[in-house]
Design brief:
globular, TIM Barrel, two-stranded antiparallel sheet, alpha/beta, 20 helices, binds fe (ii) ion, eight-stranded parallel β-barrel
Length: about 500
Amino acid sequence: MTPIEREFLDRVARIPHHGLGLSVDVYQPDLFELVGALNRRGLDYGYLEIFKAAPSALEVLRRRLPGVLLSYHAEGLWVTQPDPETLSPFHAGLDEAAEQLGILDSHWLNHECAAKQMAGHAFGTYLPALFTAASADVTAANIAQAQQRLDRAFRARAGRNGHDGMGPLFLLETPPLTYVGFGDLTMAEFFRLVTDRTPCGVVLDIGHLWTVYRYTGEWRRRPLAAFLAGFLEAFPLERVVEIHMAGLALHQAVPSRARPDGEPPLWIDAHGAPIPDVLSDMLAQVLEHRGLVNLKGVALEVDTKPIPTIVEEFAQACERFGNRVARDWRERRERRDSIRASRARPARRACSTPADGRLVEQYDRYAQIVTGRAASGLPVLGGDASALPLYVEHYLPHEILEWGGAVHEMFPETCRDLDRAGIALDAFVRFWFREPRANDQAYDFFLLKITRFVEFVREVLPAASGTAVREAQALREGYQAACEQVGA
Ligand SMILES: [Fe+2]
């Protein structure tokens, strides 16, 4: 066994079994209404995974749900990027995460293997890591740095008395593909390289995996069950600590078209959408795998989903998977040694972020391709970029203009002024991605949208900038108040 494998096992052994739970957002839907609805239906949940929120909101939650296991879904820690500190304050973000982990008493920090900022550009939703060996090195080094900082924060908080020096475990989640992915490794190979280099855990997201099958063109080559079986053999399953399952849906901005026989739908990850049967069948196949020896929890990700649908789907999940997830995992742990021995390999520990100029250039190219400013220049996952235009032409403009706050609703008066002056809002999308920008603020897409829109108006219609500034101020104040007000 390598020292890295040993360290992972030491860390994961401290995590209690969490069971079948829900991954939620404190704001939407109302978490206390959801908990009430689950209780009325007599449904027991093993834990709640909470998305990053205002500390005051998390404190209210901790106080009102004593005795409930809570875990933490972080955001804004761009561990996949070669320059995380220059994109968004990485170290301050880790300290903030440590505080939130402490409020929740969480045993882990989960973060997507993806970023919403790269090469000086900001996006509203995740772009997966570039799946190459150099990128795996950088990701592992950043995770190692993050884990050290969390350990330090928890050691300092505990003082000298009785702390073993280990903070909550960093978990890296398999990301979704939104129509396309880039790199020359499969996602399984990439995760294997990362886990060989650092003792992190992993979250396996079933819906995200479906999008990998869909957008790497694997569906043209083999049936889903055969793809999944092959994936599970190559993936570091012994590092999987949590499994996620959410919905999939067509995107509202993408025009529908007739599909030839056998072609899967153009679904993407959608937490508010119902869970299709195909994902439940995939989950069943995953849970049967003998390599899954360190699993602690399975969560339905339900943020933005209507409460009646959550309750119904959770009831179904309890019925189909409850026993299997609650099963004593001791039997699986006993199998661990033999599996570990068969997979033993020399480990090369990542200890600092390698300065890799080529990776910086590749991420710059990545940002250019997905924003339509370059046509190619990176290896495409599975060689299939056929759905990339959907991202560039429909998904991305919708993200800037509508997603996480519709610009015309946020700035109604300014938009009327722009309209009267004959300036279309599409110009804001081009303005947004025109050049890379330095940023010293923690990532917040809504606040960024406000700032950028005021800058845009100042440039294209200076006469309306006073109106834009006034509307921006009201938005910021309302946002701040809403973030802090949860079930107080
Ligand atoms: Fe997930």
